[in-house]
Fold this protein.
Amino acid sequence: MNRDLLDILSDSASNEQFELRDPIYENERVKSGYLVSASSDSEYEIKDFIPRFVSDQKYATSFGYEWHFFKKTQLDSHTGTHISRDRWSDITGYQPEDMKGKVVLEAGCGSGRFLEIVAPFSKKCIGLDMSSAVDAASDNLIRDFSTVDIIQADLNRTAIQKNSVDFVYSIGVLDHIPDTLKGIKSLVSLIKPGGELAVWLYGPHLKIWPGDMYRFIGSRMDPHRLLTILKKYVPFALKTHKIPFLGKFFKWVLFPAPEYAHLPIPEDMRLEWSILDAYDRFGSIIEKHFSEEQLRKILQDAGLINIRKNKVLNSFIGQKPA
Ligand SMILES: C[S@@+](CC[C@H](N)C(=O)[O-])C[C@H]1O[C@@H](n2cnc3c(N)ncnc32)[C@H](O)[C@@H]1O
C-alpha cells in the first residue's frame, strides 16, 4: 500500500486512524507490516502490499479462484480493445477523464479490469474486494499505476473513513451479497457529501430459469472441479446454440451459456470470456436479481438523491446530499 492510504483508513471499531507498525518498503510501497489501532487493540496484517481486513473470504471464495484463473481475461490492456472502458462509461455515465483529481473507490474490484480504466486519471484509486481476487488485482495494477491501492475487506465493513471518497462504483457485486441495501448504505457512508455512487446489478430474469439449477449444483462444487467441467461444457453448449430450429431451446432451456459473439476479439478469447462468465454465473453462492424500480427504491432508501439511469440496463447513479 501507499503510505498516504493511512490518511483515508480508520479502524471500523473505534473510528481511530491506524498506526503503521514494522513496515517493510519495496518500490516506495509498504510491502508488509501491520495496521494497529491503539484503543481497540485491533491489528491487521499488510501482506504482499495489501492490507487484509478479513481473514475469511466467506461466500466470495469462488470469486477468488475465478479471478486468479482469469486474471487478465477482461483487461483492456490484454485484449487490446476498449471493451472494459466502454462498459465502465456506459454503467457510470462518465468518461474516465472525469475522475481527474478524485478519490475513487471500486467496491468488489475482482481482477481490476475497471480500476485499470480509472487509475490513469484519478488522484487516488482504491480497489476493495473480500476475496483473494485482491492478489490478482494487485499483480495486475500496482506496478503500472502509483495511484492504485488494493485492500481486502468486506464492503459492509471497509476500514475506510466515512465521508472520504469522491466517487464509488460497484459493478456486478451488490447482487452477490446477503443484504444489498445494507451494502449500499455502507458504501454511501464512505462518500463525501455531494459525491456519487454508480452501480450495476443483475436485472430480472424468469422465475424458473434452468441456469439456477446449474448454479445450485455448481456453487456446491469444488471450484477447480467446476471449472474443469465448464471448460468442456461451454464449448459444447455454444455449439448447440447454433443448431437450426432447436438452437433457441438449447440456449434458453437445456444448455445455457453466456455468448460473446458481439465482442471484437478473436474466437479463443471470446470462448475464455464465456467460460469465465459461466463460472461466475454457476459458481456464485448468492445471486439476486432486481427490477429497475426495486433498484431505484433501494438507492433512495440508502439516502441518495438525483438518481439517474445510465445506458446499461439496471445501471444507476445517485448523489449523496451535500
Ligand atoms: C462478479 S465479480 C465482479 C468483479 C468486478 N467488479 C468486475 O466486474 O470485473 C464480484 C466481486 O465481488 C466480490 N465481493 C463479493 N462480496 C463482497 C463483499 N461483501 N465485499 C467486497 N467484495 C465482495 C467478489 O469477491 C468478486 O470479486
DSSP finds eleven helices and eleven strands in the chain. The chain has two domains: 65-202+291-319, 210-283. The chain has a mean pLDDT of 95. Residues 60, 63, 67, 108-110, 113, 128-131, 133, 154-156, 171-173, 176-177, 280 surround S-adenosylmethionine (CB under 6 Å).
